[in-house]
Amino acid sequence: MKITNTPLDQININVRFRKPSEVKVNEIADSISQVGLLSPIGIDASKNLIFGMHRFLAYQKLGKKTIPSIIQESDPKMNELKELVENYDRNDLDLIQLSDHLVKREQLLKELGLMFVENTNPYDRGNKISVPELAESLGFTKRSYQVRKQVSKIDPDVKMMLSGTEFANNLTYLLKLSAEDSSMQKDIAGLLLSGKCKTFKSAFIQAKYKEFKLRSKPRCEFNFKERFGSYPQSIMKFHHVNDDLRKVTSIVNQDENLRHQKGSLNFGETQIKLHQMNPQQCEFAIDYYTQPNDLVLDMFNGRGTSGLTSLHLGRRFIGFHIDEYAYKETKRVIEDHVETTPDRWKLYLEDGCEMNSLKDKSEYVDAVFTSPPYTGQPEPYNNDPRDLCNMSFEDFYKRIDVMMSNVARLIKKSDHENKRYHPIIFVVGTHRNGKEGIFDMDVEFQNIARAHGLTLWDKQFLETNNPHLVCSLQRNFEFKFVHKNYETSLVFVKF
Q: How confident is the model at residue 261, as a pLDDT?
C-alpha cells in the first residue's frame, strides 16, 4: 500500500452521505498540529475522496497544501460502505443520522452481495452477514435495530430540518413523526424550530388541531342552547316553564275526575294529581331524536303529554289508552287546542302492550317515546286489571316483554351509515319491593330490549323534583334509603 502526498486542491469531493462535524474537524486539526496525521485519507485513481473527509477538512483548516493519501481501486459501492463504517466508528450520530446510516449500510451490503436475505436458500449464505448479526455487531438487539431504522421514513426535508437539533434524539416522537404524512411532518418540525412549541407533544397537538380545523365541517348549523334550552348532556334537569305547550298539556291532568284518592304522609286523605311527564323534557327528547313529520308512537299515553308535544313539534302521533275517560279527554284537548288535522294523529282505547290495532303493521313508526307505568307504587291510574301499576313484579315484566316484542316489530330500521336513526325512548326509574330491595327498570328494560334484537344507543339521567322530600326524610333514614331524584331515559334502535 503506497502512501503519496496529494495536493488538496486536486482532490474531488463528491456528495457525502452525511454532513461533516465542525467540532470533529477542529479536534482532528488540533491533533494534527500536535502529533501529525496518524492515518492517511483514501482516494481513487481519479483523486475522488473515498474516506477521510474530516481529515481533509482539518488539513484545509490548517492551511496545508498536500495531504498523505492512499490510492485505492475498488467498487464505488465498497468505497461508500467504507466511508459509512468510518463515519459510524469515528462520529457520534443523532437518531436521524443513525437511522439513515443503518438503512444505507444495509442497502450497500445487499447490493455488494454481502448480506444474507432471510427466507432465501440457507446453502447460498456462505460468509454473508444476517440482519441479527449486523445489529449485534453495531451494539443493538434485532428489535432496537429495526425500530431505529423506522426513523428513516421521515420526509428528507424534515430530517434535514431536525438533524443536529435537540429534537433529533427523541426516539418515541421521531417514530410517531415517521407515521404521519409529509405535510404533517413539516408542520410539526416548523412549530418546533420556530419556537412556537417547545416539545414534540405540544407540536403534535397544535398541528393536529390545525389539520382538524382545515378538514372538518362546521360543527353545528344552529345554536344548541338556544334551541334546546341547554346543551344536550347525559345528565340533565328540566325546569317547569309556563309556556303554551305546558298550558295545553296540563289541561288533562287538571281534570278532577283524573285525580287519585291517596292517604298520603301526615295529611290524611288527599286528592292528588297523577304523575305527568314534564312537557319540557318530552319536548327536548322528541325535538332532539326525531325529525319533522316523523310518526311517533306512545303505548302508554296516560295524560297525553307525548302526543300533544309531538303534534306541537310538527310530528305525527299514535297513542294507546286503557282509561276511557283519559282517552276521551285527550282527544278533546287535541281537537280543541292543537292546530292539526285528523290524518296526523290517532288514539286507540286498548291495551298498549298488545297494540292489536297495529297487528298487521311492521317497520311502521319512525319513533317511540313513552314513560311506562311503574308497578309496586300507590298510584294506579284505574282499577283495570290491564293497568301495569296493579300487577306483581313478575307479571309486570311479562307484559313489558310482550310490549317490547311489538315495538321491535313496529319500529323502522336505523341506518347508521347515513345517520338516520329511529329511536325507541323509555323514561324509566326504580321501584322497591319490600325486603327484596330495588328493582331497577333501567337494567330490566335493557335486558328485555336486547333479547328482542334492539341496541342500546343512548342513555340519559334526568334529575327530578319531589315536593314531598322533607316529609320522606325520616322514613328514608330509618330504612337507610337515600332520596331518589332521577329517572333514566333509555334510547334503543334496531339495525
A: 41
Domain ranges of the chain: 1-92, 225-493
pTM for the predicted model, two decimal places:
0.56
pLDDT range class, residue 275, cuts 50, 70, 90:
low
Question: Using one digit for the tens of pLDDT, what is the confidence trace for 79-123?
Answer: 777 777 776 766 678 899 899 889 988 888 888 777 877 766 665
**Exposure pattern of 307-325 as b/e (b: 16+ CB <10 Å)?**
bbbbbbbebbbbbbbbbee
User: Strand 3-7 relative to strand 430-432: parallel, antiparallel, unpaired?
Assistant: unpaired
CATH of 225-493, picked from 3.40.50.150, 3.20.20.70, 3.10.129.10, 3.30.360.10, is 3.40.50.150
Q: Looking at domain 1-92, which of 3.20.20.150, 3.90.1530.10, 2.60.120.280, 2.40.440.10 is its CATH number?
A: 3.90.1530.10
User: Residue 63: which residues within 8 A CB-CB, separation 6 or more?
Assistant: none
User: Residue 199: is its pLDDT beyond 90?
Assistant: yes
Question: What is the rounded CA–CA span in Å between residue 199 and residue 205?
Answer: 10
Check residue 244 and give its pLDDT: 82
**pLDDT value at 176 more than 90:** yes
